[in-house]
Known about the structure:
Layout: E1 2-9, E2 14-21, E3 26-31, H1 40-43, H2 46-55, E4 59-64, H3 67-73, H4 79-105, E5 112-117, H5 119-130, E6 135-141, H6 160-163, H7 167-170, H8 176-182, E7 186-191, H9 199-211, E8 216-220, H10 229-243
Parallel strand pairs: 3-4, 3-5, 5-6, 6-7, 7-8
Antiparallel strand pairs: 1-2, 2-4
Helix pairs in contact: 2-10, 3-4
Amino acid sequence: MKAVERWRSPCVQREVTLVRWGTFGQPVLLFPTAGGDAEEIERFHMIDVLRPLIDAGKIKVYSCDSVAGQALLGRHVSARHQMWMQNQFHYYVKTEVVPAIRTDCKSPEIEVWAAGASIGALHSVAMVCRFPHLFSKAIAMSGTYDIRRFYDARLDEFTDEFYVSSPIHFVPGLAGRHLDVLRTRFILMPCGEGRAEDIGESWAMANVLGRMGIPNRVDPWGREWHHDWVTWRKMLPQYLTEWTK
């Protein structure tokens, strides 16, 4: 069962879309790649390979537009606006998307799993690390975590809004109750080692998490797996099947 909901977001100041596939099960928020929209995962057949889990009532899959990624790719806006949008996007997920998911699940306290590939992996890790009271697990596939190279800005031009939304940068400064809760969560980072993959990004993120005592694992898939939907369509059903047994 597919459902589409649209509204004007006060956080990102534009119309947004949230799509759901399934009726019962663990909610999984699957972030699109780069500038993808909420239905990208359906067009690239990810829903097809997740269909057995959806139909069995194991998971409900949600996806939202990659508003931050669209801003990052949109060279007509300033780097400062792109950084602002990344932070606002995360608060849109926290204050608008998660409440919509909980309402749909008829469970005001249900924890969400995050997942995504490439830039979507960055957002899935950020969700668990920024909001561990809302997100309990992440499957971050073929992730890119230090994205400063994508901005047309000098290092001294990066704003606080960027650094508080970039997990590889803000996690080392976490402390107190926030960190205590985060240490009960889990982040999985599978990555191929073939064309256009850089597993070093995942290892760098894992080192930051590990130094802070945050449970995580990098799964290397080898050189035959490329930075491509073929890889991610193989990875995600495998891990979600394991997690929902």
